[in-house]
Specification:
heterodimer, A: alpha/beta, Glutaredoxin, five-stranded mixed beta sheet, two-stranded antiparallel sheet, 38% helix, 19% strand, elongated, B: mainly alpha, Helicase, Ruva Protein, domain 3, 6 helices
């Protein structure tokens, strides 16, 4: 009987323990998006202000697509970050007003400020389904060719911006994405 | 007159016990959360049956632990509406499932598709069962072969054994 065989159960236990330990710290809300590296879904909608928009109106440089709603409290938490990004001209931000009412959305932008180049009005949530959205807030990073490259679920505050978005943007710039 | 505490407590404890038992028994009869009621119209009972089956097998992406039928979430409401629309427009089940997969991935299915990414999910339990079976079989085989073995000692060992036994007694 070889000696090492005695240690197999201990190794098996250790491997399982490490696996389950890691599992404890996974965020079940962080679902992989199906749209990474796929083009933005086609849309033909209006803005919150009532103007016609489609894919051709999207910025032709890298931009953020932020899913928000006036009912959404976490959106207020991340709002100052988008205001700063817009004011400093760091990156254009396009909004998707998701499952909201137009009048409430307009009031919200009046009260809190409007960091968005424009906000796509998606009252029915149908455009949200094409994006694979499951609730505001969510933010997508879209490159200059209109391809979705990164997705963040829940609040995008300064920490998330520094630690997740800036490196992702750097990487895309290095690739020559835009 | 003051009631003695020691006499009072056991009776209270009995009452507490009865209440706990009663509430436990009641909880056995509690109904599961009611399904969401939408007023969808169908042309045929078959369409309605397909709708019910699909909404039961698709998971709500937001709430994660309920299917579309049982979820109050906004996105679940939208997805139920989409499933209804697609059924009425004559989509097949496969087309509807593909539509959901393209947007929400494997997560949307309570019964994930068999793909390279989901092989471990499908066959993991079987693999563990086989490993466990092999371990149990080898342990059992060793145990039964040990029983048949007769310990044989050579001359020197016999002498040493006798010496030890003598020392004991």
């Amino acid at each position: 009987m070889q000696r090492w065989k005695f240690f197999i159960p201990a190794f098996a236990f250790l491997a399982l323990a490490v696996l389950l330990w890691r599992g404890l710290y996974l965020d079940p809300q962080e679902l992989p998006s199906m749209l990474i590296d796929k083009p933005m879904p086609a849309f033909e909608l209006t803005t919150v202000e009532g103007e016609q928009v489609n894919n051709a109106d999207l910025p032709d440089e890298m931009f953020l697509l932020n899913v928000w709603g006036s009912y959404c409290l976490p959106c207020l938490v991340e709002h100052p970050t988008f205001m700063r990004l817009a004011e400093e001209g760091e990156i254009p931000v396009v909004g998707v007003n998701y499952r909201d009412r137009q009048d409430l959305a307009l009031n919200w932008l009046d009260d809190n400020g409007d960091p968005f180049a424009f906000s796509i009005l998606d009252e029915s949530g149908r455009f949200g389904i094409d994006l694979g959205v499951y609730g505001a807030p969510e933010t997508y990073l879209v490159d200059g060719n209109g391809v979705i490259r990164y997705r963040h679920v829940s609040v995008l505050d300064e920490t998330v911006w520094q630690e997740e978005f800036l490196p992702a943007i750097e990487e895309l710039r290095a690739e020559g994405g835009s | 007159m003051r009631m003695s505490l020691s006499r009072f407590l056991p009776r209270r404890r009995g009452l507490l016990l009865i209440l706990l038992t009663a509430s436990f028994c009641l909880s056995l009869f509690s109904l599961p959360a009611a399904a969401q009621v939408d007023t969808f119209q169908f042309d045929t009972p078959e369409q309605q049956e397909r709708f019910r089956r699909l909404s039961n097998e698709l998971r709500c992406p937001m709430c994660q632990n309920t299917n579309l039928t049982g979820s109050t979430g906004g996105v679940a409401e939208d997805l139920r509406r989409e499933v209804h629309r697609m059924i009425m427009e004559g989509w097949t089940d496969e087309e509807i499932e593909q539509f959901m997969f393209e947007r929400y991935g494997d997560f949307i299915f309570y019964r994930p598709r068999l793909r390279p990414e989901t092989i471990l999910l499908w066959f993991g339990p079987l693999i563990f069962l086989i490993i466990g079976g092999l371990v149990a079989w080898s342990v059992w085989r060793r145990a039964s072969s040990d029983q048949d073995e007769v310990a044989e000692l050579d001359e020197a060992e016999q002498a040493r054994l006798r010496e030890l036994l003598d020392k004991q007694s």
